[in-house]
Amino acid sequence: MAGNPGAHSSRLRAHPAAIVLVSAILLSAHPACGADIRGDDPFESFNRDVHDFNKGIDRNILRPSSRIYGRVVPEPIDRVVSNFADHMRLPLRGVNNVLQADWSGAFATAGRFSVNTLFGVGGVLDPASAMNIDDAETDFGATLHAWGADRGAYVELPFFGPSSVRDATGRFVDFFIDPMPRLLPGRYDVYRYSFSALDRLGDRDELGDFIDSMLYDSKDSYAAVRDAYLQSRRRQLNRGLLEEDLEDPYAE
Amino acid sequence: MPNDAKPTRRRLIACAFAAALLGLPATATATPARADAERLVLDASNEILAIIGDDDPEPVMIRRFNEMLESFADVPIIARSSLGVDWRAATPEQRAAYTRAFGRYLSRKYGKRFREFIGASVEVIRTRSVKSGVLVESRMTLAGRSPFAVDWQVSDKSGRNRIFNLYIEGVSLLASERQEVRTMLDQAGGDIDRLIEDLNSS
Q1: Partner-chain residue, chosen from B3, B11, B14, that has the shortest CB–CB distance to A135
Q2: Are the beta carbons of B9 and A136 separated by less than 8 Å?
Q3: pTM, entire model
Q4: What is the DSSP letter of B138?
């Protein structure tokens, strides 16, 4: 089902650590409990500590600096930052499209990358979106899902926020299979992380009210963030709501 | 802006955004039930657009939102579901008082955020019949932001076609409110009367 990664396999072989981790996840996968969104939360007390930590980071650093960013950086510049940060993630997305044997996704990702590189001044503009080239985000967590791996327990990661055992593993593997450092010379990672960090500030500013209401107005912000993450991730992976996930209060 | 480029952003939007509903060109569908559900979603959306567009003072806006909820949503079933298993333990008087308090709480909570939706548009992607009624899948676009998915559940089991749940990027409003109410009930020491007071004063 995974398809043959073909040309990418040599790149993968260079990272035995990643392969070991993937195998561990796949071996631990069992098909039984995928349907349960709310499920249990075995790491809850640890997660809640991390959540408090993340909230402290947001309150003291992220939120105030995002306000400054929003005030100082004009909208067109913010858009350029966001476009370029997205653009630099496309090769990794393409690798995951291929690993999932999602050929139409791979085609769209390659098209988006080519169009925005050639006609979008190297990725700072986004003509591909204007051309309605499909832009479905994916990552190695989604690849693990496509390969049949179970989500595993919910975890809240320091700095990165809500995740799961599978998605956190995906994040880790994505770091190693990202072809971008090999495509660009020198201190590429510095640029990439700078743009990602700026992009994150822009996001935090743009979504200020919504994030504030979830983090600071909810009665239980930990549970609100957890439930929102698990549900939206599930919808993303399934490309829509599944009938079994729909509410049916009339039947209760 | 890229459609799906901001999963984190959209995931975070999701919970807070729960009352998002706005104007759309409905596509004709095969069965009357599905066409009716689309029409209901369209009408509710247009009503909300009208409320935002009038730029009334907040209390007026919230009152109009409450009236909109009464005519387009099945508030009693939403209230009942939000209380979860504790509904069964409640007396008829408590149930009636809770339903009233919960409807007003919803109007205040989401009515306040309405100005965020100025200039929004919604297009229906697909409408399908499901066991619990009809699911209307739409995409909402706010000026200068990445579009996000809003899915609506519609049922006629109350006797009339009514919206009884919506999902922002997959996040269920009913599930979110159930979690919120459960926490409030815990804080009220499991006392439903105190929960109702807290809802009325929140």
Answers
A1: B3
A2: no
A3: 0.80
A4: E
